Amino acid sequence: MTVAYSCFGPTPCTNHSFDLYWLATLKDYQKKGIGRRLLQQSFQSIKEMGGQRVYIETSGRAQYYPTQMFYKSCGLVQEACLKDYYDIGDDCLIFSYKIKENYPKK
Q1: Long-range residue pairs from 29-33, CB within 8 A, at least 24 positions apart, any chain
Q2: First to last CA, the chain
Q3: Which of 69, 82, 88, 95 could crosslink 76 through cysteines, CB 3.0-4.6 Å?
Q4: Rounded Cα distance, 49 and 14, in Å
Q5: Rounded to whole angstroms, how far apart are CA atoms 45 and 67?
Q6: How much is the average pLDDT of 1-17?
Q7: For 14-55, what is each residue's pLDDT tens digit?
């Protein structure tokens, strides 16, 4: 059974940027460090592929607050807020992470 999943790829028309499209963990397996480890492994793979910066988009709605806090706790920085992107009152938050030797905090 798959309990967590990550999907990423190079950002089109860029030299060293990657998009992380999905990072998901089954509800019963959340809060056990699996997502954080998977994010670390994703960053390591991106680094090995020549990536230098990773971008992640998520909703600004209240139900995504735990996701936003997770990204921040892993060292990602909110770079932008696109107002009413998904729908009226549903902003798009863009986070970034600069690939370096040390990965998200444990």
Answers
A1: 29/3, 29/4
A2: 25
A3: 95
A4: 13
A5: 22
A6: 96
A7: 999 999 999 999 999 999 999 999 999 999 999 999 999 999
**Per DSSP, which regions of the chain are E strands?**
4-10, 17-25, 53-59, 77-87, 90-98
Q: Can you tell me which residue has the tokens 């139900």? A: 63
Backbone angles phi, psi at 88, to 5 degrees: -60, 125
Question: Residue 68: which of 32, 94, 87 has the closest Cα?
Answer: 94
Structure tokens at 106: 């444990």
pTM listed for this prediction = 0.89
Number of helices and strands (H, E) in the chain? 2, 5
How far are the Cα atoms of 18, 39, 69, 81 from residue 47, in angstroms, in the given order? 10, 12, 24, 26
Q: Indicate if the pLDDT at residue 58 is higher than 80.
A: yes
